[in-house]
Please model this.
Amino acid sequence: MIYKGYTTNLQQRLKKHNSKSTTYSAKYKPWKLIFYCVFTTKQKALTFERYLKSGSGIAFMNKRLI
Model:
């Protein structure tokens, strides 16, 4: 499973996904980081996240990122 999301603390978020504190993602553990991207603003990060969840974004991600 591939998770796409926004966070301000990557280490803490990954730890949370691998624990039982997030019930949905915990059932797919262990999670491992294969790619991350840093943006200068929160808005740019959220826009890119939304794009990656779209049809063309999924195709881009599969071809270029993983």
